[in-house]
Amino acid sequence: MLTIGQLARRVGLRPSALRYYEAEGLLEPAGRTEAGYRLYAPADVDTVRLLRRAQRLGFSLAEIRALLAAWRGGDLDNAETLALAEGRYLALERQVTELRVQQHELELFLQELTGAEAGAAQSAFGRLVDRICANPTAELPSHTVLDWLTTYNGCLLSGPAAQDVLAQLRGRHIHVWREDDAYHILVVGRDPATAAALAELTRLERDCAAHPNLIPELTDDEEGYLLVARGDNAFILARLFLALEHETP
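^ thats the sequence. predicted structure below, dont judge the formating
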C-alpha cells in the first residue's frame, strides 16, 4: 500500500491534487491507517496517470468519470468511451479550424499592409515570413482531411462521386472567414466549371447523412462564388477548402 505522499511522488503531483481528485469522486483510497491516513493500492498509480492524461486531452470531469469507470471495469474500448473520444476529437478539430481560418485572414491582412506601405510594414512582414519559413506548419492535404471524414463520419465528399468536384476546386484562390456563427468561403473568379463544382459540392453536403446539421448555401458574389456553411460541422468545409487551396490543380 502507498501513503498519499508516496503516491504523489510516483505520479509527480502534490498531495493536495490527489485530495482534489478524491473530492471530485475520481480517486478513492483503498483504506486508511489506524491513525486515519489515506492508503492507496499500487494500481492507483496507473489510475492517476490515466486521469492526468484525460485532463491533458481536455475531457470534462464527467467524461473522466466515465472513462475511469470503463477502465476499472476492463472495458475502456467500449462504444461509449469511443464516442467520448471521437467527440473530443471533433471539438479539437473545430478549434484547430478556427485558428487556421484566423491565420488565413491574418495572412491576407499582412499582404494588404505590405501592399499599402513598402517601408516598416514590408520589413515586419519579411521578418515574420522568415520566422514562419524556418519552422513551417504545413496545411493538411485534402486527401488527409477526406480520410478523416471517411473514418469518423462516412462523409459523401470522401466518395467517388465527389472526386471530379474536388479536382476542379484544387488550387483555387479563396478567402475564408468566420462571421455570425458561420464560415464564409469565397472562391475568387468567374469560372463556370468552378461554379458547377461548387453547386455539386453543396448538393452532396445537403444530402450527406453523416452530418445533417451542416447547412451550406451557395450564392454569387461580385468577386466570385460565396459558400456559407452553418451548423456544428460547418468547420469541415472550411478545413477542406483551406487544404484544397494549397494543392496543385
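Strands lie at 2-3, 31-32, 38-40, 174-179, 182-188, 215-221, 224-230.
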